[in-house]
Here is the input.
Amino acid sequence: MSVNTSQSHPAGASKTARVAPERIFDVGINEKLPGSQLILLALQNVFGMTGMFVFPGILGRAFNLPPEQIAYVYGMTFIVCGIITVLQSVWLLRLPIAQGPYAGSFGALLAVGHLQSGGLGTAYGSFFVASLIWCVLTVPIRGRSFVGIFARYIRVPIISGMIVMLIMIQIASVALPTWIGTRASAGFPGVNLLSGAVAVAAIIGAMLWGGRRLRRGAILIGLALGTLCYTLFVPISFAAVASAPILVVPHLFPFGFGVRADLVIVFLLVLIPAGMGSMALYQTVAEWGSESLTSGRMSEGLFGVALGSVVAAVCGGFSTIAYPDNIGILRATRVGSRYVTLTAGLFLIILGGCVKFDMLLVVVPLPVISAAATLLFGIVFMHGVHILAQVEWDDRQLICTGLAFLVGLGGLFIAPDVLHTMPLMLQLVLQQPVISGGVTLVVLHALLCAKK
Here is the structure.
């Protein structure tokens, strides 16, 4: 990465010129695989979604929900993510994008659900109205949508690279902290750290020295060995799993229904970065597979994200986003087939519909999954750095990115007592780096770096 503080450029030179993208995938986006590899890679995508295994449990315990209701939230999270993943793989975006639960909607539900007026019922009702508005804004008409006009900004390397990095910063709180665990967790801290380290070491070994076949199963190998290490020290009971029913029955607004206008605005602000982040990751994956990503396809992909928000709000789940864990898996395995994510989506629907599996997630060791996610988050974060390395820097771009990055990062370090004195909307904005940093970046870039 070179830094040029001069404001002059040779004639015809572009300050944001992007070098020809390198093809990353050994297996192309539209290529098919044998059934055994397809199943293995699909399961790896399912078990690589950390938020899928973490967010429902944290939300349920925060509101003292009974285990059966926590299992229901798990089930709805899996089913919603599975439906949207299938749509993105086959009909809408047509890229190997696995949709996972969005950390922003999880954080907003957790924050506003504790308000005295309505609790989770009002939170999910306001979330539903905001999702409907967002869905209307993303409806593709003749291959374009209102929100899709922002796709051209995401194609600028300086913005797409920064957005990818801000996404990783935002969800980093569920990686290393969950790997270490809390004082109440059975394996804290030694067993959690050891089992997670075993998982990470196994994944790295399979990726670097395992050859093509082991590389494609690296995540599953790491999770299996890490779980085995954990159970050697902390036995796991499966009694609750054995007594659970077979199938889950979806309910409309299972926590009740209420709407507050200010909360609708809060959820709209939370959903915006989901679209921004998804566009950046769509562009990344398309470049890895040397695939042309038109504005029409981008708009259809955004509509899929918005549709997932509506379904999640109705059934009691979380809105979805192009999941960074799975983008990391694509980069690690070099398999970009969208038939893999199609199969993963079908598995998500099947697994989410089985209550016994949902109950099983309550006893799965989270430190092992979180350790694997820490590695994958790091891979995707460094790809954001790689995108920024393609930028020919000048003073204006350094100002834009430097200020935006520290605004996004700095909000996470505001003291809790100071944060709680602020209006709820401002709290949520400051605690979402993709909102605070992303908006700062886009505005500054438009003001300082815009070109005819």
In short: The chain has one domain: 35-391. The longest helix spans residues 261-288.
